[in-house]
Design a protein that fits this description.
This protein is mainly α and about 230 residues long. It has helices at about 20-30, 35-45, 45-55, 65-80, 105-110, 115-130, 140-165, 170-190, 195-230. It is globular and about 65 Å long.
Length: about 230
C-alpha cells in the first residue's frame, strides 16, 4: 500500500483499519467488561445495580441509554436477519372491532416493537412516579431504572423468540413476553427496596396500569384512524 500524505508528518497516529473500528465500537459500548457485567447484574440484583449507578459508581456498568439502544438493536437485527415475525401487540378485539381501524396500527406496533415498548415504558415510569412518590426520586432517575429494565426485557424477548423459532412454537415467544414484563415489575420493586413485599405489589400495579393506559391510547388512535378513513 502506498504512502498517504500526512502520516509521515504524524507517526504517532496509526492507520484506521478494522481493528481500530472494532476497538472504537467496544469502547463506545463498554463491551470489554461493562455490557456482560451489566446483563449479569440485572438478572441477579437490578435494584441494587441501578441504585449503585445513581448514588455511588457509574464506571463499572454500561450507561443506561447505551444499554437500552444496544439491546433493542440486537433484538431488531437478529429477528430481522432470521425473518422472525411475532404479533407482540394486538389492539382491539371482539365487539369493538367494527368501530376501529386497527390493522394499520397493529402492523406498525409489531414492526416497531422497540418504539412501542419505549412508549409503554414511559407510561410505566409515570405510574411509578405516582405509586412511589414518597421516595422522592425524580423522573430522570426513574427513566434510568426503566432504561435498564426494558433493555433487559428486550434480551429476554429475544431469547424466547429464538427458542420459539427453533422449536416452531409461537407460544414460547409469548411466554417470554409475560416473563419479560414480570421481570420489569420485579426490577422496579427491588429498586425501591427488595425486602418490602408491598414494593413488588405496587410495581405490578404500575405495569398493569401502564398496560391499560397504553391500550386505551392505542384504541383512541385506532378510532381516529377509523374517522380519517385509514385502514
Amino acid at each position: 500500500m502506498g504512502k498517504i500524505e500526512g502520516f509521515e508528518e504524524n507517526k504517532k497516529l496509526k492507520r484506521i483499519d478494522s481493528l481500530y473500528i472494532i476497538h472504537e465500537i467496544k469502547h463506545l459500548l463498554h463491551l470489554e467488561s461493562g455490557f456482560l457485567f451489566t446483563v449479569k447484574q440485572l438478572f441477579i440484583s437490578p435494584g441494587k445495580l441501578v441504585r449503585n449507578f445513581i448514588f455511588e459508581d457509574r464506571s463499572k456498568v454500561t450507561k443506561p441509554l447505551i444499554f437500552l439502544i444496544f439491546s433493542t438493536t440486537i433484538f431488531t437485527l437478529v429477528l430481522h436477519s432470521l425473518h422472525i415475525e411475532y404479533q407482540y401487540f394486538n389492539i382491539g378485539n371482539g365487539s369493538i372491532d367494527s368501530y376501529l381501524s386497527k390493522e394499520a396500527l397493529n402492523n406498525w406496533l409489531n414492526n416497531h416493537v422497540g418504539y412501542a415498548s419505549l412508549f409503554f415504558g414511559f407510561l410505566i415510569a409515570l405510574w411509578t412516579m405516582l405509586f412511589f412518590k414518597k421516595h422522592k426520586y425524580n423522573i430522570y432517575e426513574i427513566t434510568i431504572l426503566l432504561c435498564y429494565s426494558f433493555g433487559q426485557l428486550f434480551l429476554i424477548l429475544l431469547s424466547f423468540s429464538l427458542i420459539g423459532f427453533l422449536f416452531k412454537n409461537n407460544s414460547i415467544a409469548f411466554v417470554g413476553v409475560v416473563i419479560g414484563y414480570l421481570y420489569v415489575a420485579w426490577s422496579i420493586g427491588q429498586f425501591f427496596g427488595e425486602k418490602k413485599i408491598t414494593n413488588y405489589v405496587k410495581s405490578i400495579f404500575c405495569c398493569i396500569f401502564g398496560f391499560v393506559s397504553f391500550t386505551l391510547i392505542m384504541l383512541i388512535l385506532a378510532l381516529i384512524f377509523k374517522q380519517l378513513g385509514l385502514k
